[in-house]
């Protein structure tokens, strides 16, 4: 039996939900991508994955999460695991940060272009990450992957289409999704 554990990174310190203009939201995204973890929001319990091969996204929050959770850095870093971009469009609005994320991602999914990876490009990249994880699972029967919310969702969907069984699913910060294949 092969097992892939997807763990979403911990909550970034900068993940506040203040009202922002479009320009302020652009800065919020930059800060979110460079933020350390919020020490007040570590997981209530750490599960035992010591026998698992550790893989992480190259983004800081995933690297820090792997190191904290496992007590050591990731053995492998897969660039395609990085989060699907949080797009930002110039709109004459003031919204809470997470409302900006939802609105901008909706526009992005509908095909609105910007200075970032398109939704189609992001899905293709995440598809490559899913294939790479399957290859890693051939080499290491148990792997644990520290990644991101939206990327983990698409990886989970793609792996399920390839015959992996989802036995556990949690998309929150520090959330664990478990997939197995015989």
From TrEMBL:
One Pfam family recorded for the sequence: His_Phos_1
Which SUPFAM superfamilies does this UniProt record tie to the protein? Phosphoglycerate mutase-like
Q: What's the protein name?
A: Phosphoglycerate mutase
**What is the source species?**
Alteromonas naphthalenivorans
């Amino acid at each position: 039996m092969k097992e892939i554990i997807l763990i979403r990174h911990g909550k970034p310190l900068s993940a506040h939900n203040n009202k922002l203009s479009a320009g302020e939201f652009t800065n919020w995204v930059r800060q979110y991508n460079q933020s350390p973890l919020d020490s007040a929001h570590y997981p209530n319990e750490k599960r035992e994955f010591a026998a698992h091969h550790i893989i992480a996204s190259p983004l800081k929050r995933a690297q820090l999460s792997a190191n904290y959770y496992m007590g050591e850095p990731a053995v492998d870093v897969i660039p395609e695991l990085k989060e699907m971009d949080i797009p930002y469009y110039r709109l004459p609005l003031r919204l809470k940060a997470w409302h900006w994320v939802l609105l901008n991602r909706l526009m992005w999914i509908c095909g609105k272009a910007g200075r970032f990876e398109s939704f189609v490009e992001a899905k293709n990249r995440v598809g490559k990450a899913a294939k790479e994880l399957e290859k890693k699972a051939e080499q290491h029967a148990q792997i644990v992957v520290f990644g991101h919310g939206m990327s983990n969702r698409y990886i989970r969907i793609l792996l399920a289409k390839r015959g992996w069984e989802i036995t556990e699913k949690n998309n929150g910060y520090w959330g664990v999704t478990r997939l197995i294949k015989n």
